Amino acid sequence: MTSTLALAQNGNAAEPKKHILLNAFDMSTIGHLSPGQWKNPDDKSATKRTLKYWIDLAKLLERGGINALFLADTYGGYDTYEGSLDNCIRRAAQWPVTDPTIPISAMAAVTKNLSFAITASTSFEPPFLLAKRFSTLDHLTGGRIGWNVVTSWKKAAFKAIGLDTPIEHDERYQQADEYLRVLYKLWEGSWADDAVSPDPAKDEYADPNKIRTIHHHGKYVNLDTKHIVDPSPQRTPFIFQAGTSPAGSQFAATHAEGIFVSSHSTKVLRPKIDAIRKLAAENGRDPRSIKFFATFTPIVAATDEEARAKHDELKKYASTEGGLVLVSGWTGIDLSKYPLDQELTAADSLEAHKVRSLLDSFTTTSKDIPKWTPRVIADKASIGGLGPVAIGSPATVADELERWVREADIDGFNLGYVTTPGTFEDVVDLLIPELRRRGLYPEAIEEGLTARERVYGKGQSGVRKDHIGSTYKYDVYSEDKPYEANGTK
After folding, report:
1. Where is the chain membrane-spanning (predicted)?
2. 35 alpha-carbon distance from chain centroid
């Protein structure tokens, strides 16, 4: 969906309204943000190991004109709660998890417009391998690929690859910054636009003189190679990032095109968004070019009464303990150790490795939540997990979406589900028609656009000129000096 303004009538005056960007938020696991719903006969989460689930979901989202399917991922289980993985496994709280990249080709084959944002970590594989995979996906989807950049923080995940302790939080972002710069060199700087120039008469397909060898010798990455994949439609996939800690915010202001944020309150979220836009401007970027997507779980029915009844029914299947497992892992607070009504603060987070922005979200009070206790968290975490849940008719939920856009200065939402595909069906059949009536959602989607064009407009398949990736393009590329241990270049 482009960010073109729609005109909505307000009395006799024409007031511009910004189109809201909607992503469907899923994960290749049983219990994503609403653990326990696998017990619900209406939920198909347990069928995610079949291609049919993903193909049917892609067709549904395409029918609704959804911007992208945003796929979370994780590399280890949540073992903070009770100091064990047992309840993570028992409650299917993001366990088991399959690889989200595998079904993308099948979904791309049955859609023309839906983009796909895939989570992948900068901590667990050489950048050359990730560059090859994302270039391949960008080719096969016709440029409909985005990458949600994460640095990874779970001890279990690092132990799985042979490291006893995760890299310290801020250093992970330093490592990720170098990692991204290496990828830009491969994606943007290795191949000239006309390197592929088939000449059957000469038996020549590509010109080796127009494919640069990248020589990168940094603190965290060393490589000497040409990118093995020819330029894909976007070259660099659309870059998403999550995390609003100081280090995460600086990284986002430098690299991110879309930022995934989570909070139960617009007033808590707005200062963080303002700060990142300010940092982006200081980096020479248009601060409005960074698109913010907030987690949001809608429970929609024809009327408010029916929606409340649906919510009551969903609560019957919710796994309270599964929700506590997830929040304990995210925040580093073992919620099994605290009385139900004891107020929690960031000081209770005794685990060094956690998601700092989510710890802040679950310990920062507001008018909506004046006190965080295990009981409050248990009530909220099992339905929607990360962010706000809106319950009501299409008009009621649309009002809430508009309020978040207005008060938090966000550009769109990652819509979580309670049951799948039920929540997404309600979004497509009930909520989107209401948004269209308000001029907040396009009536039709132009076909053949890349993921980046869906956000920035036709013609912007590559990174914008004010994005750091553009400084590594083939025609302006300049290799960095080798890293030296004393900190000089």
Report:
1. none
2. 19
**361 lies in a domain?**
no
4 in a structural domain: no
Confidence of residue 372 (pLDDT cuts 50, 70, 90): confident
Question: What is the percentage of the chain residues whose pLDDT exceeds 90?
Answer: 72
Domain that holds residue 137: 21-306+385-472
In this structure, is residue 418 part of a structural domain?
Answer: yes
Compute, in degrees rounded to 10, the torsion defined by CA atoms 330, 334, 336, 338.
-120
- What is the number of structural domains in the chain? 1
Q: Are strands 13-18 and 5-10 parallel, antiparallel or unpaired?
A: antiparallel
Query: Average model confidence (pLDDT) for the chain?
Result: 90
pTM of the model: 0.91
Please check whether residue 13 lies inside any domain of the structure.
Answer: no
**CATH classification at residue 228:** 3.20.20.30
